[in-house]
Structure formats: structure tokens, C-alpha cells
Amino acid sequence: MNRFTFILLTIFPILISAQVVRITDADLVGNQTYQWTKNNTYVLDGLVFLEEGGILNIEAGTVVKFTDRADVGNPSALVITRGAKIYAEGTSDEPIIFTAEADDVNDPSDLGPKDNALWGGIVLLGRGVTQKGGNSEVNIEGIDLSETRGLYGGNDNDDNSGVLRYVSVRHGGRQIVSGSELNGLSLGAVGSKTVLEYVEIYANSDDGIEFFGGAPNLKYAVVAFTEDDSYDWDEVFTGKGQFWFSIQRSDIADAGGELDGSTPDDLTPYSNPTVYNWTHIGAGAGATASNPVGILLRAGTAGTIANSIVAEMKNKAIEVQDRAAGVNDAYSKLGTGELKILNNLFWNNGANTSIDGSSTGIIRITSGAEDATASALIAHLTGNANAIADPGFHSISREQDGGLDPRPSLNGAAYNTALANVPADPFFTQVSYKGAFSALAQGAWITGWTTLDRNGHLDLKIATDADEEEGLDALSVYPNPAQPGKSVEVNSEWNKIVHIGIYSLGGVMIRSIPVNNDAREQMVIEGLDRGLYVIQFKTESGKFAIRKLIVE
Predict the structure, then answer these.
(1) Predicted structure pTM score
(2) What does DSSP say about strands 339-342 and 316-320: parallel, antiparallel, or unpaired?
(3) Is 146 exposed, middle or buried (0-12, 13-18, 19+ CB in 10 A)?
(4) Are residues 224 and 343 in the same domain?
(5) 356, β-bridge pairs
(6) Please, are residues 249 and 225 in contact by the beta-carbon 8 Å criterion?
(7) Residues 426 and 489 in one domain
(8) How far apart are CA 120 and CA 195, in angstroms?
(9) Which of the four pLDDT bands, split at 50, 70 and 90, describes residue 11?
(10) Confidence label for 16 from pLDDT (cuts 50, 70 and 90)
(11) In this structure, are residues 261 and 297 in contact, taking their beta carbons and an 8 Å threshold?
(12) Least confident of 268-272, 382-386, 392-396
């Protein structure tokens, strides 16, 4: 047995006694700057608006909670109004958590994927371009029309509402008026200068993330276990997205994406966003949820969805709504070239055997469609390198059992089928795979900061193809979690490891270690921060296995 020993020297900050700070609407006003710090827990009661000119800075590691109000019309929620800004800038080690007051964030067993509607949600309102019922300035869904602070819209798609980075929004979706729940994150005409990356919505009763017009760009997003749609766009949304992940519950779920052009349907102007590298995992073949369709493109939307994966829908994978001849619907956008569905993978959706609208096909056909056999959609999908093919997910689970690893296999279709060209745009990252994750350690960007990880959903062993082939499954790291000043031993009965690397969750190598298998290896890491790390073991043939390392 080979044994490699690592000594971890970790420097901890001095802990400050936490205070509970209760916030109501009267506590936030316009043209003021507020600092929320991680040594406090903030509890918001009722609808709380940050008004025009206000700035809210939230320190990494801060927990913000919301009361569970009995009255339907006034749930607890945070609304960043037009002209106000929020700077919620967490880190992979210290995310900012927005959650229910009842959530013990230190106990993963406290609340799970079925605990939702315990508070409202997070709302950002901007001055971007939108249109609803002919109006370019409208109230966000659910807020009373008399509440002028709920207005969004304008003519500035470069508007800036601040930053959400490494943010987890848990257990929301409470009704704001009867029959109208709040999304986990509602973006009302938010502009492109707003930074939205590493954002998670977990266990929301309504949609996960909904775009109401504007041009916000969203990168590295997770929507897990919503009761309605995972992602929703409407009202002239023209932003960009990359590395989106969504997974649905088996007992209740709607579409992975309900993607609309306008409200009412089929008008101009209409949505026209660009999204690359989306992985959607539906409710599964045995679901009790209706789970009707993975991606629903309707109401005259245009746009591009490319290099993405739709899998595990109980029923159909995709529908492009075709209402009738002469209607400016999503189907018509295929004909004009404004709607592009490029180089995507469909796997294990319904019977999953053909790209058509048959009982075994993946296409859902609109009732009363002009093209009753969806021939134009079939031609578009097959002509643009969309395919039914297995991406090789390592493991899929919707429970808190450490069984979810949505990264594809290096040998699967995500890596070995043709890719659509990624736009030459600074927003987009050029990658060699389909879906939200790479197969390598750096692809596990959902580890550490997400509720999926912290509540025990993920397979943090992060197995790779090499595990079974080369016997690397025998590797173990002990003790794990590690304590400051203590050693960590990596044990294996396998003797072909030639290199060990320790990485941050962002993929940055902290230390590179050549291995002499005839000797006991030792390494000292000074100033290693508390958090999650990845250890990669590489063989002489270039195969590798990955294990997590927790430092507490």
C-alpha cells in the first residue's frame, strides 16, 4: 500500500459573535448605502424595497433570512428597484445565502428539496427594454399595480443593477397575491452591466430564474428542484447565457425552459437571447410529475440554444410552438433563421428513439399546428447536428444521498460529437464539450458553494473513467474533513500514480507534486484557507482520478 502524507497548516480568522438584525421595509431607503456583514444574520420581514439610489453591499459568507408570513399578500422578499444596486459578492468558500428563517444553514438535514414556499424571492428591477401588453413600463409579476416601486422597464439595456456572485437562494416561491408566486430570482428588464454568475436557486415553488425583458447575462447558474419551470424568459429578453444547469424533482415539475417571445403571444418586439452549454436533467422516466417537455419555445421567441443537453424528461424533450398559418410564432422563427437550435444532445427523454413527433420520438407537437408532423423542426434539428446520444453522466440522483455527478464522460457524446461555434464574444468561454460541465476537476464548479453540495446531493468523489479501468477506485483520503496542523493520508493499493495536484474549486492548481512510489511523500501547505479542494491523481498513462478534500 502506498501512503502519501500532506500536512495542512490553516490560519483561521478570529470568530466574531453573530447578531440577528431584523429588517423591515422602513429600514431601507433611497440614496443610502448599507453594509451587511457576515458576523450578523439579517432577517427580512415582509416586502422590503431598496429604493432608487440605494446601494446594498453584502459581505461574502453572509446569511440573509426571510420570515414565513401567514398573509398571502405580503410575503417576505427583497426587491432591488430601478436605480438601486445590490453588491452581493460571495466566494466559492463563502457564498451568500438567501433562505427561510427556519433554515439552519449548518444542518444539511434541516430543509431539503421539497421544502419550498417558505418566503418570497429576490427581485431585481432595471431600466432595460421590455414590453407587456403594449406597455414598455410594467409592474413585476405579483406586486400590486398601485406599488410604483414594483415598476421595471425603459430604454437602457446597458443598465446596471449590481452584482450577484456565488449566491444561493433557497426554499422560496411564496405567493405574493393569490395564484401568483415569486420566482427564486426575478429579473425585470435588468441591464447587461449587471453581473450575474454563480447563482443557485434551490427548492423554489415557482420558476427558478425568470427573465422579464432586458439584456442581463447569466453565467454559471444552478436551478434545482423547482415545482414549476427551471428557467423562463419573456417580454423581449435579449441577454446571453452559458453554463446553466437544472435538475427537477420526480414528483412535481414543469418545463426545463419555458421560453417566450412576448406577452401577449406572437407580437413584436420579441425575445432573442443566446444560450450555450445548458444541461437540463428532467424528472426521470419513473416520475409521478407530468414533466411535459424539456425545452418549450413559444410565443414567437427567437434566439439560439446550442451545445446543450436535455435528458431524463418523462415525456418529450422539445417543442417549438406552431400555432397556425400566418402567425408570428416560434415556428415561424425557424423559417426566418431567427430561431437556432444547434448541436444539442437529447438523451433518455420518453422513449427516446427518434427525432420526430411519434410516440417514441422526442418532439412534442402543438395541437392544431400548421406543420402537423413537425417536418420543419425535424429538418432543422437533423440539419444542425442535434442528436439523440448519450453524454455519459457519471450518476444522477434527486435525493440527498451523495449520488449526483452531472459531468459527462470523456468517452461520451458531449465530447465526441460536433460542436456549434461559440460566439467570439468576451462573455463566452470557448470549451470543447456540450453541457454545463467538463469531465475534469475544473468542471465541477457546482461544488463547495451550492446547496446541492452542502446538503449532500453531490458525489464529491467525482469519479472518472479511470476509476474502474485502472483500479483507482481504491484511493481514499483520511481524515476528511481535515483539521489544521494535522496530516492527511492518501492510501491506495495501486502503484502507478506518478503525479498529484491540489486544485481550488475554480481549477487553480495550488501545488504540483511528482510522486516516487517507493517512498513516503510529504507536503506542507501554508495558509490553506478553510473550504473545499480537489486532489487529482494522475497515472503514468495519463489517466486520472479525483477526490475531494475538506479543510475545516
Answers:
(1) 0.83
(2) unpaired
(3) exposed
(4) no
(5) none
(6) yes
(7) no
(8) 22
(9) very low
(10) very low
(11) no
(12) 392-396
